Structure formats: structure tokens, C-alpha cells
Amino acid sequence: MRDFYQGKVVVITGASSGIGADLALLLASYGARLALVARRTDKLAELREQCAAAGAEVLVHGADVADEAAMLALRDAVLARWGHADIVIANAGVGGLNPADRFSLSVHRKIVETNCIGLANTLIPFVPSMMERHQGQLVGVSSLAAFRGLPKAASYSSTKSQQAVFLESLRVDLRPHGIAVSSIHPGFVVTPMTQHDEFKMPFLVPVRKSSLLVARAIRRRRPVYLYPWPMRLLTWLNRHLPPWLYDRLMPKLGGYKEKVEARVF
Known about the structure:
- By secondary structure, the chain is of the alpha/beta class.
- It has one domain: Rossmann fold, CATH 3.40.50.
- Helices cover about 50% and strands about 15% of the residues.
- It is built from ten helices and nine strands.
- The strands form two sheets. Strands 3-2-1-4-6-7-8 form a seven-stranded parallel β-sheet, with helices on both faces. A two-stranded antiparallel ribbon has the order 5-9.
- Strand 6, helix 7 (about 155-175) and strand 7 (about 180-185) form a beta-alpha-beta unit.
- It starts with a helix and ends with a strand.
């Protein structure tokens, strides 16, 4: 994969930890030029040093992806530095629980603003310059939660579904312009976001294995990619369960605690 990423300008949001940080380190080792975005600038500074030590040219940008002006400033900084972006990876996102019997509109708003508005704020500013060059790739990191409404997760599941549909529409529209769009759907990955016990998380994927799988899917310009394969199979089965059966099975199989409070993680 080194030959593919060598010298490419790659933008990664949500780069301060988890999937984003490890993916940045992996692509740095492949010789990519990186624009790293996150709210936690102290973590970004540490990551910049690590990526630079691997030989990468790195630009860091402190921003909340829900802030349109900040993300436009990111686009301007990337174009001023390198003239273009080859790959833009909208990885920033939040998880959360929001059970219907304790539903929080403020939690819902936060999840929607980060996962949905943030995705658009990340990708859309780079579309005009990619169209001019007739090349580029937009990548959205969604979730396997996109394919059915999970118990106690109306906010999270619905935003991940929105991401998948949004990316599909972009893919159809931008294909004639030479721009690829990839929708990446991880299962459970060992990151700070999975450090809780409020439901079962089978087939946990180590973060470096996740990064390798994502990097390969991007290189192959996969329009939709679900991983790991056991969760991909379970997701396929879930999608084909009739509602009456899904409603009864899923709360039990998922091991969800009966009483959870609405929160973002």
C-alpha cells in the first residue's frame, strides 16, 4: 500500500485518538502528507510529532467539525499548503445512548451535529477543487449501526444511517467527475469509544488491524465496506429479520442494560 499512499495529501478528522490517530500513524509510515483535525489540540501536537518522526509532512488544525467556518478554514489551509487534497477522511464522530424512555433532545442534537453536519462540513468544501482536477476520494467513517435501529440508540443509529445515505448520493453525483466516495462501516474497534460495558461488543477489532482494513478499502476505492467479516455477516442477518422478530431478539442478544442514561461518548 506504500506506493498508493506515498506523497498523497490525506485529510483526517477525529485524529486525536482512536481510529483517526492510528490511521494517521499508519499513513505517515506510508509517506502520505497529512492534514490532521481534532478539537483537542494538545493531542494533535503529540500526534504531529509522532507522524513527523515517521517522515511525514504534517499540518494540524484544531477545529470542531460541526463548525462550518472552522472547516472552511481547514480547506483553505490545505489548499494553501499543498494545492489540493487527494483523500478526505471524515472520521470524526461521537457515540451515544439515548433510550426512548429517557430521551434527551440535547444529547440527540449533539450527536446529529457532530455525525451528520460534521460529515458534510468535512467533505463538501473539498468537492470544487476535486472537480477541477477530475480526481479525488471522499471517505466517510460510519458504522454497522447504520443498517437497523439499535436498542437505546435512536440518535446514534439514525445518524449513522444518514451518513450512509448521504455518502451514497454523493457517490452517484460525483462519479462523472472522477471523484470516488467510500462509506466505511466498522464494527467494534478497540478505542476510547468502546471503553464501557453498557452492551455487548462482540468481535472487537484491534485498532491497528482496523486501520489496515480501512487503508486497503480506500486504496481499492470500495464504495461500501463493512468489517470485520463476522459482524458483516451478523449485520446481513439482522437486516433480513422481520420487524416482529427483530424487536424481540435484539434487546436480548445485544446484552443491553435495562436502565441506561442518555449520554454521548
